[in-house]
Write a structure and sequence with these properties.
Layout lengths: L2 H13 L6 E3 L6 E4 L4 H9 L8 E3 L6 H12 L5 E6 L7 H11 L21 H10 L1 E6 L4 H10 L1
Length: about 160
């Protein structure tokens, strides 16, 4: 990443402070929920009681550090087998799009997510972590879905 991106990121932390990035649930669950940039949905899911049925509910704002963090968490919590991706994708970052591109196409020799439309889809996680994600995780695409009942219904299917 370049210094302008890092500066903008630091400014966003001050101007748009976010209290919670994730909530932990049942560590035995095989399901994780990613609300992308939808903080309201993150909060509603937490309040719904669904944490008893999922390992974690978290957000994903960026196509680089955010995806690195998500993949590292999943790698370190091997019981997770499914990630339900919901909520509105982050304008500009397109982190949801990049997550699905990584899953389908992987990384190039410069560690950029292949076919990503994000501005800086460069990851720092190991190839082992990326391979684990691609081979052991099922992504469930509910991008742009913010209806709480529909999301909970999908979670209950698994």
């Amino acid at each position: 990443m370049n210094s302008l991106s890092e500066l903008i990121g630091e400014i966003c932390k001050v101007v748009l402070p976010i209290k919670h990035e994730y909530y932990l649930g049942d560590e035995q669950s095989s399901i994780a929920v990613c609300t992308l940039g939808d903080i309201t949905l993150l909060s509603k899911l937490k309040q719904s009681g669904i944490l008893n049925d999922v390992s974690i509910i978290g957000r994903l704002f960026t196509e680089n550090k955010g995806i690195d963090s998500l993949l590292t968490f999943v790698f370190n919590n091997k019981k997770i087998r499914k990630i339900l991706v919901c909520g509105k994708d982050v304008w500009g970052h397109k982190s949801g799009h990049s997550l699905f591109s990584l899953y389908k196409y992987g990384l190039d020799q410069n560690r950029r997510i292949i076919n990503s439309k994000s501005p800086e889809p460069i990851l720092t996680v190991s190839d082992e972590i990326v391979n684990h994600f691609q081979k052991n995780i099922e992504l469930i695409d509910l991008i742009n879905e913010n209806n709480l009942e529909k999301i909970i219904e999908q979670i209950k299917k698994y």
